[in-house]
Design goal:
The protein is mainly beta. It contains six helices and 29 strands.
């Protein structure tokens, strides 16, 4: 438990980037060289106090469908200690109280200085949502720290309060303070810890959840488009094997994940891809391998796992409308994608359409076809900083969004939530030779009359690779696809 506490404190100290000035609102925080070595303080406050703050911040929200609440109940243990962890020469007892007056003073100072911004709209944590195991702390003579006092905050109840009654984002604060020392003076720099609980209200609106109903097989769109195939992912377990196959192992782009089928399943009306930080032995390991794809062999282990599914050959399509609804992770290192490649010819002669790629904080929409040398593509690419979306909707990443491709003989247009991302003139997309591939060198992979030739859908969550490093995401990382629908003219 003690090691866990140290790790938690370090994490919390890193998270508290906003200056805190309410530990001692009436005094100067600057050290003037006269601090008594015998002053008492809260040991954990001393460990995280950086000269300005002694805050612990915890983020809480109702889990999305299929997610697990990461903080069911907040548990923290506190000790009393002397400055610089000295041994006590005599017994000392202090009262442990909830310093609501200190919080009120901090709230009253909001607007007077940026350091108090963190207290804007803060609320005192109601007493029925927490419990302190003791109201006093005692440091015994000869000891370096007191017995632990446990703070429990009922996080699940707090989330329910916000969801059912407040119905808005709320910052609750619990100011825990030591007072009334029987022996030593109290260090007013580390006498208080402010526990912040930022509870995010999750709107139960449909944009947060997968569609559990789907559409019938004879569904039609305006303009004469009829549904030709679709998967609503409303079952449980593995995706439909008649429609999808799995990729396995290392595949492309020097990505860090090892693909395996166990990392994707249908649940909560969506196809859920889960990337995990876990080590997998590479059965193809060969430290002496050479060549362009040697990276697949020279790695003895993969440090991450994830999944990729590819449509079976009979579901190749050409022209029409593709509609995919998905919720994507936007953490650095994750690389979710909705894309397709041609079912004939080697890459890129069969063409590639990236309806969605997300990496390095940008949404990408691309087309690729044969370039000036083998395995080299000509690209029409468009990308947009994720802030273009999150600045308009802070909860953008918590919601499902719709990617749509409109494809005829002249143009391919890719949309996100009805906003055009990429338009490609198909008179410009002829391959520039096969360069030794043997076939497909001068076709247009997007505008042709080749019967049976088309694009095969792929859905995956990659990690790292040439476009995804550094990997800074929190694992497990999830990517959810609500449905895939393909329409063509009747």
């Amino acid at each position: 438990m003690k090691n866990k506490i140290k790790i938690w404190v370090a994490l919390c100290a890193a998270a508290c980037s906003i200056t805190f000035s309410a530990c001692d609102e009436d005094n100067d925080f600057g050290y003037n060289g006269k601090l008594s070595l015998n002053y008492l303080g809260i040991k954990q406050a001393s460990e995280i106090w950086d000269g300005a703050q002694c805050n612990i911040v915890t983020a809480l929200k109702e889990p999305q469908e299929g997610e697990v609440q990461k903080v069911k109940n907040f548990n923290y243990r506190l000790n009393l200690a002397l400055y610089q962890n000295r041994k006590a020469e005599k017994d000392a007892t202090v009262d442990l109280v909830i310093a609501s007056d200190s919080l009120k003073k901090a709230i009253a100072l909001v607007g007077t200085s940026s350091v108090y911004t963190v207290y804007a709209d803060a609320e005192l944590l109601p007493e029925e949502y927490y419990n302190l195991s003791a109201s006093k702390m005692e440091l015994s003579a000869g000891s370096k720290k007191s017995e632990e006092v446990e703070l429990n905050v009922y996080s699940s109840k707090l989330i329910a309060l916000v969801q059912d009654e407040w119905k808005k984002d709320v910052t609750f604060v619990l100011p825990v303070q030591i007072q009334n020392s029987t022996s030593y003076s109290i260090n007013d720099k580390t006498n208080t810890m402010m526990f912040f609980f930022n509870v995010t209200y999750v709107d139960p609106g449909e944009e947060y959840f997968a569609d559990g109903e789907g559409v019938p097989d004879d569904h039609e769109l305006e303009g004469g488009y009829k549904l030709v195939w679709h998967d609503e992912f409303n079952g449980t377990g593995a995706p439909n094997a008649e429609m999808w196959r799995y990729e396995e192992g290392f595949q492309r782009n020097e990505e860090d994940q090892w693909y395996k089928k166990e990392n994707v399943e249908m649940k909560k009306n969506a196809l859920v891809f889960t990337a995990k930080q876990e080590r997998v032995k590479n059965p193809n390991y060969n430290p002496n391998a050479t060549g362009g794809n040697s990276w697949k062999q020279t790695r003895e282990y993969a440090e991450y796992t994830s999944a990729c599914v590819v449509a079976q050959n009979k579901y190749a399509f050409k022209y029409g409308k593709l509609v995919v609804r998905a919720k994507i992770p936007i953490e650095q290192g994750g690389w979710p994608a909705i894309w397709s490649t041609g079912n004939w010819y080697e890459w890129p002669l069969g063409g590639e359409i990236d309806f969605l790629e997300f990496y390095k904080n940008k949404i990408h929409a691309n087309l690729c076809w044969g370039g000036n040398k083998r395995w080299d593509g000509s690209w029409n690419s468009a990308n947009y900083p994720i802030t273009d979306f999150t600045s308009k909707d802070a909860k953008w990443a918590e919601k499902y969004h719709v990617w749509m491709m409109d494809w005829d003989e002249k143009y391919i247009r890719i949309y996100l939530d009805d906003v055009l991302l990429n338009e490609t003139d198909l008179s410009t997309t002829y391959n520039k030779g096969d360069h030794g591939a043997g076939e497909g060198g001068y076709i247009n992979p997007y505008s042709n009359d080749l019967e049976g030739f088309g694009q095969l859908m792929m859905l995956n969550l990659a990690i790292g690779g040439v476009n995804g490093r550094p990997i800074e995401a929190t694992f497990p990382l999830e990517y959810r696809v609500d449905y895939v629908r393909v329409y063509q003219k009747k």
